[in-house]
């Protein structure tokens, strides 16, 4: 439906099993200049986040969901986004996401640090994750 949209925040956390809480809606990252009303669909709850292209284009993976290829942010980009939106995410979801990322044997600290620099969350990475890596 939205070929340029990217699965984002809690929807990505749920996919990666960093949270067991099912999101109330599909959270997607879309172009900052896209038309908001196109995401109002009666049969599906969608929560678009209008993101600058320079932030939106990094850390994207392609996955298959029900035989449809969709874009999703990788684990490190998702954690950086969680850190960016710390005050807008439920505290339990936030804490579990950080803990599960730290325990994940497939985590990519190099990418996490690179994305942290771009997204201006390096201090938060040091505060919440630095002591564990």
How are the SSEs ordered, and which strands pair?
Layout: E1 6-7, H1 9-15, E2 26-31, E3 46-51, H2 53-56, E4 60-65, E5 68-73, H3 75-84, H4 91-103, H5 109-118, H6 122-128
Parallel strand pairs: 1-5, 2-3
Antiparallel strand pairs: 1-2, 4-5
Helix pairs in contact: 1-3, 3-4, 3-5, 5-6
Task: Please provide a written account of the structure.
With 133 residues, the chain is of the alpha/beta class. The chain has helices at 9-15, 53-56, 75-84, 91-103, 109-118, 122-128, and strands at residues 6-7, 26-31, 46-51, 60-65, 68-73. It has one domain (6-132). The chain contains six helices and five strands. The chain has a five-stranded mixed β-sheet with strand order 3-2-1-5-4. A hairpin with a 2-residue loop joins β4 and β5. The N and C termini lie far apart (39 Å).
Strand content: 15-25%
Along the chain, the helix and strand elements come as EHEEHEEHHHH
Strand order of the largest sheet: 3-2-1-5-4
**Helical percentage:** 25-40%
Contiguous uncertain segments of 5+ residues: none
Shape: globular
Give the domain tally. 1
Average per-residue pLDDT, rounded, comes to 93
Q: Biggest sheet, open or closed, and with what strands and sense?
A: 5 strands, mixed
Q: Helical element count? A: 6
Rg computed from alpha carbons, rounded to a whole number of angstroms:
14 Å
Distance between the termini: 39 Å
Number of strands: 5
Structural class: alpha/beta
């Amino acid at each position: 439906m939205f070929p340029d949209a990217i699965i984002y925040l809690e929807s990505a956390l749920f996919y990666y099993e960093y949270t067991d809480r099912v999101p109330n809606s599909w959270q997607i990252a879309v172009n900052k200049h896209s038309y908001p009303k196109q995401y109002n669909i009666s049969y599906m709850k969608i929560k678009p986040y209008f993101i600058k292209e320079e932030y939106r284009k990094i850390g994207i993976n392609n996955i298959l969901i029900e035989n449809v290829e969709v874009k999703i942010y990788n684990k490190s980009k998702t954690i950086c986004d969680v850190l960016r939106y710390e005050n807008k995410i439920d505290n339990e979801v936030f804490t579990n996401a950080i803990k599960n990322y730290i325990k994940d044997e497939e985590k990519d600290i190099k990418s996490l640090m690179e994305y942290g620099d771009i997204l201006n969350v390096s201090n938060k990475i040091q505060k919440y994750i630095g002591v564990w890596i």
